Amino acid sequence: MSIWTWLGAVFPILFLFLMMSVFHMKTERAAFLGIICAMISAILIGKSTPQIVTTDLEKGAFSALNILIVIWPAVFLYEMMKFAGVFQSIKQMLQKKTQDELVMVLLICWLFSSFLQGITGFGVPVAVCAPILIALGVQPLWSVIITLLGHAWANTYGTFALAWDALITQSETQKIFEIKWLAGLLLLGVNFAGALLISWLYGKGKALRHIFPFLLIISLVQGGGQLIVSFTNSAIAAFIPTTLALVVGWLILSAGFYTKPWKMDSKLMVRRENEEIEKQLNKVITTEQLVEVKENSSNKPITNGQAIFPFIILAAISVIVLLIKPIHEVMNQTIFALSFPQIETGRGFIVEATDSYGAIHIFTHAGFVLLLTVIVTLLLYLQKGYLDKQKMKSVITATLKKIIPTSLGILFLIVMSQVLKGSGIMQLIAQGVTQLTGKYYSFAVPFLGLLGAFVTSSNTSSNILLGSFQKTAADMISVNEAAILAAQTAGGAIGTVVGPSTILLGTTTAGCEGEEGEVLRFMLPIVLVEAAITGIMITVLIH
Fold first, then answer.
1. pTM for this one?
2. Which of 34, 87, 137, 447 is the S-S candidate for 16 at Cβ 3.0 to 4.6 Å?
3. Which has the closest alpha carbon to 94: 80, 114, 112?
């Protein structure tokens, strides 16, 4: 493969990143142009026919539905909780438990977001946690960034181990025990690194010295717990330790540790409250905004128990639907999928025919779980008077305002991703990296996992896309396939931090739409360093 072929293959991905992070183009526009670049690359570099490209466009649109049916109820739930006064109630509840600002931030962006990743995934953690952090005083953009950093480690065994199952299924490896051991250690490192980085961003060395014992204990419970539980049951390897970590965190506070007032002059936080109020007073306010202020100010105070009710229901429904085997087997039978014929590009890249492309298990899907949560919560809040007819009108209006541009952005991103996958472009990129690195390919593996997660905004999709390739590459260069596959899923977990569709969902609920490029630009050096450290560790282990 020539260097020009490889550059032509990687161009659409570089284009998307540059448009979003350097030129600050809106996500939906950048992704739409990215589709055009991907189509050109697919035809000229991947040797796809117009018919193959059309098929990939159809596949991409259907794949986007899998994510959109999660996003729509998630945004609606967020708006409903906002108008019911949930986030302010959670803030007050946390402040009664501890006056340590950094601990409060970590409880949400690290512990709670990881718990949500364990049972839901699909961007739900950042959609839910960013608004809570904003209520605690975190700047909107930072609320998205630190939540992404806080739960990245749980993106292999989260969502009841979807990404793990994809890795094992696609690679057809038999070295499951060894992969679990290596992946668990790598993800423990990602967990601890994320917590350290969040604390450093809050207050550098002083914050780290203050919070280090807390970080060490919780990281051992989360990351160490995941490693241990994975050998017993992969499906709950993230759910059990993230739940336990919440309990341990609460016990630490109940014992009197980290409860006294403590905070720093942090760039993460909004400090100059009077100036912010003055800015808002001098700002031209629309009629819609005045209505929203009036509605929020007249909310009936919500109790602590009913404020956290949506999260309890979400967890309960997830456990019942996904972990109770007889119920899961019955509810998992209703499937919505499409059929596509086999395709073969001019380069000989083959995508097998399928009768179940993008299968959506309707009644066990995260979107259905969220929809049930929305319905039950809505009935309670209406009955208790936290929501009324006028507020519901505002909830619907605010939801539609957010989901239309967000849905377009995600649709275009997933379509672009599918064109790159279906034309073999991602395989060409991976092959080029293999040729370049040779026997030190192990160092590059986390970067490929990261790239797969960036393109697809999912570690599961990254493992589906590259799992088989990674095993084949390991066999070709005669290196330990378990180490390679562990590095693949660790790199994919790291890469979810820069997944454009996940970032887009976070900025949507945080109210900083259009700043996705800023998140990308800040995150890229971090994920590259983490991937490099992972690559070095695996290379040293192999050699």
1. 0.89
2. 34
3. 112
